[in-house]
């Protein structure tokens, strides 16, 4: 891992991943092979094409393969927030009260 990588990114995985791969001199195809995934599937999932999506679990696997923190990508952090909001009505209502126009 290079020292230039911050703890988190604020960019979506689709924007950040090409930069991380280039920094490591890896291709999406080689990442897919390391993850034991079909290259076409990973390519479509990263782009959100064909109804394919990157699950938080898969995003964490990508992070692990790239030796970055599991919550580096915004999608993992968003998924946790959504999960907590859905499971905690008090938290949901408190946030709503803080955010409503």
Walk me through this protein's architecture:
- It contains 6 helices and no strands.
- It is mainly alpha-helical and 101 residues long.
- It has one domain: Orthogonal Bundle (434 Repressor (Amino-terminal Domain)).
- Helix 5 (74-87) packs across helix 6 (89-99).
- The chain is elongated, with a radius of gyration of 16 Å.
- The protein starts with 12 loop residues before the first helix and ends with a helix.
- The mean pLDDT is 92.
Task: Summarize, please.
This protein has 101 residues and is mainly α.
State the main characteristics.
101 residues; 61% helix; mainly alpha; 434 Repressor (Amino-terminal Domain)
Distance between the termini: 42 Å
**Percentage of residues in DSSP E strands:** under 5%
Chain-averaged pLDDT: 92
Integer count of domains: 1
Q: What is the name of the CATH class? A: Mainly Alpha
- Here the CATH topology equals 434 Repressor (Amino-terminal Domain)
Secondary structure tally: strands = 0
CATH architecture: Orthogonal Bundle
| Rg estimate, integer Å | 16 Å
* Main pleated-sheet profile: none
Q: Which sequence of SSEs, written as H and E, runs from N to C?
A: HHHHHH
Q: Give the proportion of residues in helices.
A: 55-70%
Secondary structure elements and pairings:
Blueprint: H1 13-23, H2 28-34, H3 39-47, H4 56-65, H5 74-87, H6 89-99
Helix pairs in contact: 2-3, 5-6
